[in-house]
Amino acid sequence: MSTDPSTIYDETALAVCLVLGRARRLKSAVYDSNFKSDIRKIYALACKTLDSVKILDRTLMNSGLVEGADRAHLSANDLSEGSTACQFCLLCVLAYDLLYRGKFARHDITIRRLYNITNDSKSSNKLRRAYKEAIRSSKAHDLGSIEEVEMKRIKLPCYARVNKLLTSLDEILTELNSNGLEQIIYEVNSVSYKRFLKKVRKLQNGQFMLDYHLHDELLIFPSATSITNLDLYKAHKLVIQDKASCLVPVLLRPEPDADILDACAAPGNKTLQMISLLSSEATLFAIDRDPTRFRRLCENLAASGADRLSVVGPTDVNSLPHNNEHSAEGNEQPRVELICADFLSIDPADPRFARVKYILLDPSCSGSGLYLRQPDGDVHTGEKTKMNSTALTTTTTVPRPTEVELQHEQNADRLKRLSNLQACLLHHALEFPNVKRVIYSTCSVNTEENENVITECVQRHGDQFKLKQLWSTVKHTPRGSRMWKNRGHNELACEACIRARPEEDLTIGFFIACFELKKSRYSVVPQEGRGGKRKRTVKTSDSSNIEKEQETKEPKAGRNKSRKKRRKTSADKPCN
Predict the structure, then answer these.
(1) Active-site positions?
(2) Which of 82, 311, 325, 456 has the smallest set of CB atoms within 10 Å of its CB?
(3) pLDDT per position as a tens digit, 279-293
């Protein structure tokens, strides 16, 4: 971590500049960079700054502090080692910190940095006055303060998962209550999901509650809660993770002693969650191909209490920041092997992966489901920023038809490339010889990346795998069972899959599908005794497995061994 507390402003401004310049999306701008400050604080500050870039722009204009300021946002071609943010983005970050973060801001640092940029000792007072003026004119210009902007959007709550490697739910509840937070208690089996969501929307500051589906590990706080300021978060006992993401390891339901492979593991939240589901007899392989993201993965797991790590890649395991907290009582962790490699380059026939029965695949995607958590400046608003050396103005323009068509073609081409990659990765996961279950997830709402990918894989691997029904679709389920209303598209035969919708489930947009190995239609049960009958399963004309009793003669000596038909693979088939 950096010893200079002002570094976070420069690094956050760089992330904001990359997003506004359309060089990267926010997540990759933050996690793929070698930032020295707390990566989670950078992400949170950048997210809030981008979310309010319009009102900050107007505030800076009204203040008169930005005339002649550099506003050349970084593009993909400009990005290089040692790149810095434009002056406008740095001012936006400093202005947000000064105007909105209240007691959590470092006003002494902010004011000093503002003076260094503007050479105006009254810059902070000018910004405050300019902000009030911007609010007064917000209705005429359709701008609005940060609070007004938030009111126009769906307010998602804050989710924090209990890190069971370091603590337990009871310990977390005890500490939160001792800190003055109030738990809203309800009976899961007597409250409907609809009523539960109403309770979540009514949460007030200082309150929290347990989740409806993940009652033993997921906490819910009001949307304005600063979880990063909690000591439990700083000690890695609470992990900020959206509910939809937390569902994936739970739905995979691995056997505690089985080996698991996490194909695109960074930054490691789901990996960390899966570690808590496994015994010391299991091995978890966590793979990521990007060296920077791979190091983040290693650091995240080590700092969060994973203590049986081995690294195959450019990171030294001895350099990782191991957590000094003792693991939760009675916790015996699996072995975790971290591998820096492209998942498509991994050989399914490698003996290391012979015991892999479960694979989690959360590949790169468009991130279209993150629009409420991860605003990308004017990317989603259709705004265009004019460059001017003497004034900073932001205008909303209606693109010409040719521009709309070009943007549509670019988006369609990008989605096509993404879906092809996702299908290749899923095909590859289904080629592992002993895999029993493969779960596929994206934080995308696009059919191209979800149902279309699943449909293609069903057509190709349907003789060996079936789509597993993920929870029930029926409201009145047996006691203790779970249901989920929003499903994959029926017209594409993906109703077994789950979709999470912000407007209905108060989560990010998310998609989950699970492939499960069919029972073999060729396996033979050994004979009962000499001269007796044996029962075998024969292949039938339809897709169902029908067992038939057949009378057979006793085979000759030396030929009475059961033969297990090896499952076919399609490793030699190219991805479509």
Answers:
(1) 443
(2) 82
(3) 999 999 999 999 999
